[in-house]
Amino acid sequence: AVGPGGGIDNYDEMGLNLSRYGTLGTGRGDEPSARTGALYPALLAASRAAGPKAPLLVQAALSCAAIALAGGLAALLWSPLAGVLAASLVAVHPSLIASAGRYEVESFYGFLLLAAAWSVAFWLRRPSRGRAVFAGLCVGLSLTCRSVLFLFPIVLGAALWARARTTPGARRHVPAFLLASYVLLLPWVARNAYHFRDFIPFERGLIADTFSTASLGLTEFPHERGSMDRLAADWGCAEPGRTDCLVRGAWARVAAEPGRYLASCAARLKHAVGLHPWLVAAALLPLALVRGDPALLSLGLLCAYFLAVYAPFALVTRFFDPLLACLLVLD
User: Fold this and answer.
1) What local confidence, expressed as pLDDT, does residue 288 receive?
2) To 5 degrees, how large is the angle CA 103–CA 109–CA 114?
3) Is there a contact between 129 and 81 (Cβ–Cβ < 8 Å)?
4) Which value, to the nearest 10 degrees, does the dihedral of the CA atoms of residues 174, 176, 179, 182 take?
5) Element (H, E) at 65
6) Residue 138, pLDDT score
7) Contact 111, 63 (CB under 8 A)
């Protein structure tokens, strides 16, 4: 369950298998997997065709694009000067610089998250159906990489409907936004139905690992090699069907001790906020000052959602790196 370099998500392994065998999978190259989303392994495989170092060069280019996106988002929300300041902060942040030089998804996903945030703000600044569809497609593109925002379109749509007086134009376009947010998942669903005879709209496997360890009350995911193999053995879970077995075991523990699990969720949320407490605290100030701006509130809602959606699962610290740029824009 532990990927190359001590990671747990196996993106690089899946990218290698895709370039060598044409199959998105882990372990044996000809065995398909739905452990992670397809977009980042596909990027690794396509760029690796240009040379062994090409994926890192592509990531570096996308990191530069993310700097520009952060500046554009801040300029859209605040002013051109704020755009320059936000872009500068993103460009020099140590965690964002480090993630761009590793075969890990956070740098690429951070770019997708910024694109989603910018497109939503762009839509809400001057609502139109075309902009709503564009925003939905940007959110949907992020879902083909990692499913973190799987509920965000619904949460945002509900917030816009609840604020009908301040967002009358955007409210009319919520159905188009929702449809566009999920339509890009259809090829992935069809592929998984073909290979696994099951409905799998998002990645499967990584969530099982982090949920099962969270059900034990752990705050952070155990990175020791073999930790998931030992847990699977203790719970009597073996291939095939190990993923489903882990999820059933986790739900059984949650049902047996719901109070303990909810307390651990609260502890994980506190831990997530504590990773960047000053950024989170500073982000709350502009939200309090400009409460009537739907574009600004959408970014605040995105940041709050991102922090909260990981609470049910054992945490991996680097999974929060993609949110840093959005927090820096709010600051």
Assistant:
1) 66
2) 145
3) no
4) -80
5) helix 54-77
6) 98
7) yes
How far is it, in rounded angstroms, from Cα 44 to Cα 11? 9
Both tokens assigned to 8: 């747990």
Question: From the CB of residue 32, how many other CB atoms can be counted at a distance below 10 Å?
Answer: 17
d(CA 108, CA 100): 8
Cβ(201)–Cβ(188) below 8 Å: yes
Residue type, 158: A
CB 298 within 8 A of CB 120: yes
Neighbours of 308 (CB within 10 A): 16
Q: Determine the residue type at 131.
A: R
Biggest alpha carbon–alpha carbon distance for the chain:
58
The amino acid sitting at 37 is G
Token pair in block for residue 138:
């940007």
Cβ neighbors of 135 (< 8 A, separation 6 or more) are 116, 119, 120, 122, 123, 177, 180
119: its two tokens: 């497109």
Q: What is the mean pLDDT of each run of 10 residues along the chain (331 residues)?
A: 44 84 77 89 90 89 96 95 96 91 89 98 94 98 96 95 77 95 97 93 86 94 86 88 91 95 96 90 72 86 94 94 94 80
Q: How far is CA 65 from the centre of its chain?
A: 18
CA distances from 3 to 132, 230, 241, 250, 259 (A): 37, 16, 20, 22, 33
* C-alpha R_g of the chain: 20
Which of 265, 268, 275, 331 shows the shortest CA–CA distance to 299?
A: 331
Question: In this structure, are residues 123 and 131 in contact, taking their beta carbons and an 8 Å threshold?
Answer: yes
Q: Which stretches of 78-104 are DSSP H helices?
A: 80-92, 94-99
Side chain identity at residue 124, one-letter code: L
